[in-house]
Amino acid sequence: MNETVTGAEALIRALKHEGADIVFGYPGASIMPVYDRLYDCRQEIRHVLTRHEQCAVHAAEGYARVTGKTGVVVATSGPGATNLVTGIADALMDSTPLVVITGQVSSPMLGTDAFQETDVIGVTQPVSKWSFQIRHASDVAWAVARAFYIASSGRPGPVMLDFAKDAQLEQTEFSYAKCDFIRSYRPMPKTDSAAIERIAGMINRSERPMVIAGHGVTIARAEETLVRFAEKACIPMASTLLGLSNIPSDHPLFMGMTGMHGNIAVNYSTNKADLILAIGMRFDDRVTGDPQSYAPQAKIIHIDIDESEFDKNISVNETLHADALHALEALLPLVEHRDHTAWIDSFRVHQAFERERIMMPELKPDGAGMTMAEVVSAVSEQADADAVTVADVGLNEMMCARYTRFRSPRSFIASGGLGTMGFGLPAAIGAKMGAPERQVILFIGDGGLQMSVQEFGTVLENHTAVKIVLLNNNYLGNVRQLQTLFCDRRYSGTPLVNPDFVMLARSYDIPAENVGSRDELHGAIERMLSAEGCYLLNVAIDEDDMVFPMTPGGMPVDYILVDPEETYSPEK
Amino acid sequence: MDKQLYTVAVFSENQVGLLNQISIIFTRRCLNIESLSVSPSSIKGIHKFIITCYSDGKTMERVVRQIDKRIDVIKSYLYTDDDIIYQEIALYKVPTSALAVGSGAEELIRRYNARVLELTADYVVIEKTGHLNETEMLFADLEKFGILQFVRSGRVAVTKSKEERLSQFLRQIEQERTGAGSQKES
């Protein structure tokens, strides 16, 4: 006969069966039985107390993104649960596997507006992959097994388990079996060999093909296969924001990032290509610009594990419902080497222009004020080859994406789809805990840092060695840029009156220094990277520093501003 | 794009909260659900939702894919009226005086193939099963007697295929599963 345990104990045992070694969370009345059991097994499952529930989710996201494992979050009912919502929505948009466990009032009190009761299933249903309320201890093993299976398989995402307090205390017999099948859920489609052959034929017949690789390639761990595939068929590659670091930045076939602040060569060539092979990406509006004028000459092939992405944003010519790795492995033997030299050379012209016109002036500015580009680039050059770069949201993120030289897979973490300011610091903490052997460097703005600055406390308590580069322009810079360009420089709500960040960091025992001028930068980065623990550089950034090139929202992807006044026109 | 009435059939596990999961997919796209009916299907343990909605085909295809994506939804199908046999049921309560000789109400009931469910001193309840236009026409014809209460059900529908398409689908996943030799559902 199986041992009889409480529902809370059953949860802990189930988490161990699923290999959870760390949970991020925040206690409260309705989750106390679980916390009490966590205390008993703190050697096996580490609990990291974040200073806000939202940050527990972001930390679990950082952990999940760097390890590929499922992140686990625990919080209490009511405000604890509602504070999680932004993080859960973020994880859904960015396909991040999480199991989020919330306490709930005892089941007889459900629906009575009991103290700290919210309908958390109702609130999170639109932003989670699956949710379930555990009202009986006997459901714990089943629900947890299902939750981990659903969160991590197919297109990963956040799963909610709302755990009524009486069920946490109820006795149940415990036995555990991992879940590997749900009748109504088919996460791993069979690769359609006829479609594979059609697609290979389209690739082999194309003259100006381009690959756009997204986060799906990372999730499927298909990075190397992708590069081999592109090398064999001689196809230039581009990456979405979240796909960055799939392909080494220096790879000769890597042409850069797609989208609003992507590289000119990529965006311009999108509308010249005769074939676009999109793998593990979802044609986000930030990638496509105006969807009507997107890639007019191209046959578009869309490979994704999520069928609901097909024809959602743009119409495509061929779809393949498959995992990126399976698809690329199947295509690899069928594609033939083609000479695309002229097509590839056409990218070089745009690249040279972007380097001369935009990148060099940002990397070697004339003025005294520092640019984000020179800071990101200097950090990237001094960092380890496998350093994990975490970005918050805004200009810091775009500059980080544009100027970091990625040399190793899974080395870029940002909030892509939801664009959640405040994501950076907790995500970096989670990433460092997931990959303690790797350098974790966070680029963040002065706005974003203050959205989750309380997590300095988590750093303090856990001695988390996150390297924080604060790109401080005393503005909400990304919105300021839009106001500069489109609102006649009326800076509504964007100037920030900031605290002394160095003093603030030091009060949490985080060594910190101000970097006010270019000649201090190199030494400061060296001190930051060689320091043992967390370190913060408060770098003064010129308030007029903006990110270009830029395709304004809703414009054709090849309508590219190279500065506030001029659009790119290579034929001129 | 031309809008027309679509019927979505959703087959799901019997889980709490399924209706909300499905309805928010419509809400998010500002689509009005015209009618809805939920009942057990012919397959034990599987529930069947019949949802009707005016929209264009492309939008509805996307909606169906989003519904399909929900974990507890087994499969959903999109139909136009040509693909299905469908009915709605309507109940009309009119004053009993309407049945007075020469009023024409009796003739109406016969002509519409409707039937009287209950007759009291005060009112009579008439039932009519049919397509929307038929139940609406009867409503218009009964209006002159004064309609005290009226209700119409959501659409119920079966396909013109011999059995539920879902049965075939379930056999297929069972085949794939036993073929793969994986473990039983926990």
Key features?
heterodimer; A: 572 residues; alpha/beta; six-stranded parallel β-sheet; 23 helices; 20 strands; globular; B: 186 residues; alpha+beta; five-stranded antiparallel β-sheet; four-stranded antiparallel β-sheet; 5 helices; elongated; disordered C terminus
Q: Can you lay out the helices and strands and say which pair or pack?
A:
The complex is a heterodimer of chains A (572) and B (186).
Chain A lengths: L3 E3 H11 L4 E4 L6 H9 L5 E4 L3 H15 L3 E5 L3 H4 L2 H9 L4 E7 L15 H5 L5 E5 L5 H13 L5 E7 H5 L1 E3 L19 H13 L3 E5 L1 H5 L3 H11 L3 E3 L14 E4 L6 H7 L4 E5 L5 H4 L10 E6 L13 E4 L2 H8 L9 H23 L8 H11 L5 E4 L3 H9 L8 E2 L10 H11 L5 E6 H6 L4 H7 L3 E7 L4 H10 L14 H7 L4 E4 L2 H13 L4 E6 L32
Helix pairs in contact in A: 1-2, 1-7, 3-5, 3-18, 11-14, 12-15, 16-17, 16-23
Chain B lengths: L3 E10 L4 H11 L4 E8 L5 E10 L1 H13 L3 E7 L4 E12 L9 H7 L3 E5 L3 E8 L1 H11 L6 E4 L3 E4 L5 H16 L6
Antiparallel strand pairs in B: 1-3, 1-4, 2-3, 5-7, 5-8, 5-9, 6-7
Describe the structure.
- Chain A has 572 residues and is α/β, with parallel strands linked by helices.
- Helices cover 38% and strands 16% of the residues of chain A.
- Chain A has 23 helices and 20 strands.
- In chain A, the strands form four sheets. A six-stranded parallel beta sheet of chain A has the order 3-2-4-5-7-6.
- In chain A, helix 11 packs parallel to helix 14.
- Chain A is globular and about 75 Å long.
- Chain B has helices at 18-28, 57-69, 105-111, 132-142, 165-180; strands at residues 4-13, 33-40, 46-55, 73-79, 84-95, 115-119, 123-130, 149-152, 156-159.
- Helix content of chain B is 31%, strand content 37%.
- Chain B has 186 residues and is of the alpha+beta class.
- The radius of gyration of chain B is 21 Å and the shape is elongated.
- Chains A and B meet through strand 6 and helix 7 of A and helix 1, helix 2, strand 4 and helix 5 of B.
